[in-house]
Amino acid sequence: MSKYLPTIGIEVHVELKTNTKIFSNSRNGYGSVVNSLTNVVDLGYPGTLPTLNEEVINLGIKAATVLNCKIRKEMHFDRKNYFYPDIPKNYQITQNDTPIGYDGYVEINDDGVMKKIYIEEMHIEEDTCKSTHRKDNTYLDFNRAGVPLIEIVTKPCMTTPNEAKLYLEKLRELLFYTDVSDCKMEEGSMRADANISLRKKESDPFGTKVEIKNIGSISNVKLSLEKEIARQEKMIDNNEPFKPQTRRFDSKLNDTVLMRVKETGNDYRYFPEPDIPFVIITDEMIENVKKTIPMLPDERREKYIELGISEINSNKLVQNRDLSDYMNNLLDEKIDFQTGANLLLGDISAYLNKEEKTIEETTLNKERFIDLVNNVSNKTISSKNLKDILETIMTKEDSIEKIISSSDIKNITDENLLTEVVDKIIEANPESVNDYKNGHDRAIKYLMGQIMKETKGGANPALVMSILKDKLDK
Predict the structure, then answer these.
(1) Alpha-carbon span 283 to 172, nearest angstrom
(2) Integer Cα distance of 6 and 284 in angstroms
(3) pTM (2 decimals)?
(4) Which is nearest to 291 in space by CA: 68, 62, 105, 64?
(5) Is 138 exposed, middle or buried (0-12, 13-18, 19+ CB in 10 A)?
């Protein structure tokens, strides 16, 4: 617990999931050959003119909607003027005066306490090219130049590194589920900068601000803020003054490292971009975009829990969008949803990971999955049976009933018959019964083994265990 009050704000750059770039028809892609996704607009050739990608505006509206932002109906783009090798035009096209979204919020759950993280603004801009520094040389890859971004800027309203982590997790979840971005931090499509200062109490003025740039993962955002809080605390305790500065997080050192001291503020000489007309966003445009927004993560969690799925499994489903979308196709059916979730997150998920497939690439359609859930629920298929026939279920189109019959599954579920077997084994093993009553848990495993041996492995294990425990506990 910090003896000072941290004040934290986060700036996030998110690459938009468009087919082409924001102001040119070059493909928006990742991992291609260096400088292969470029044209004269991306390279800043003299005399070239930008053409605004309409889908960028649609995705901006979508992001603003799910982040509870107000949407600006009339906006323009601006030129942000600066000189750096990664931007040959010597300016970046962005939004300064008229960001598309403003005054929004994201709600987080911090160990049962709900808190709104307020978003000051969300604006659209173009990305710069990628700079790679090797020894004394710098190499430029213009594949990233002109990729559309939204920059989301919070108000300085977070007070702990954990709140920053939870905010970024919720932001990534919302933007991923709405197909605004793939949010792959390892590929740079979501990048976070954190601003932090310390003060003794809330009534004091803000302390000296430090910016931590280009943090590569959400967990490192939390860690870098923790390290920076400890560093600033030590300096304040020792009465060491420090100037506003920019630092970066070094994952090898697990600490922040100084990049530069901010002696003066930057003067980017913003002015409206003369080559792009003002953009008018109509109510009809907003409504059309809203129709494309799917069920959001929090709504999914609530629905799953309402249907009897545990909170843990509900969260796990939301963390796997393919499985969550698959489950959503079943919401109007009458099935045991907890069994369905257990199947998806257990054996089926293990199979998909092993085979490196999505569930849509298997033969397990909606109707066959419902049959599978029903057969597991009524104990026709045991967990052992499922492991034996799962590959057939996932690769063949035969009905579940046909697979069960052709696989010669032995799964005795007749309670009267199983009760007779359990009574016989208990009577034949009084020592094990006494061991169980004296607290030796291994005794019940021995008795289970004897029952399975007696039934030649055909008894339903869950049902046998239920009958056996009931008998032993009396």
Answers:
(1) 27
(2) 43
(3) 0.85
(4) 62
(5) exposed
For the stretch 20-50, pLDDT in tens is 999 999 999 999 999 999 999 999 999 999 9
SS3 state at 335: coil
Burial of 139 by CB count in 10 Å (0-12 exposed, 13-18 middle, 19+ buried)?
exposed
Residue matched to tokens 């057969």: 375
Q: Could you tell me what percentage of the chain is helix, strand and coil, using 3-state DSSP and rounding each to the nearest 5?
A: 40, 20, 40
**CA end-to-end distance (rounded Å), the chain:** 51
One-letter amino acid identity for 29? G
Cross-strand bridge partners of residue 190: 14
pLDDT grade, residue 413 (50/70/90)? low
The per-residue b/e assignment along 442-455, b for 16 or more CB within 10 angstroms, e otherwise, is ebbebbbebbbeeb
Q: Are 148 and 28 a contacting pair, CB within 8 Å? A: yes
How far is it between the farthest Cα atoms of the chain?
95
**Location of structure tokens 């102001």:** 23
**Beta-carbon-side half-sphere exposure of residue 238 (alpha carbons within 13 Å):** 9
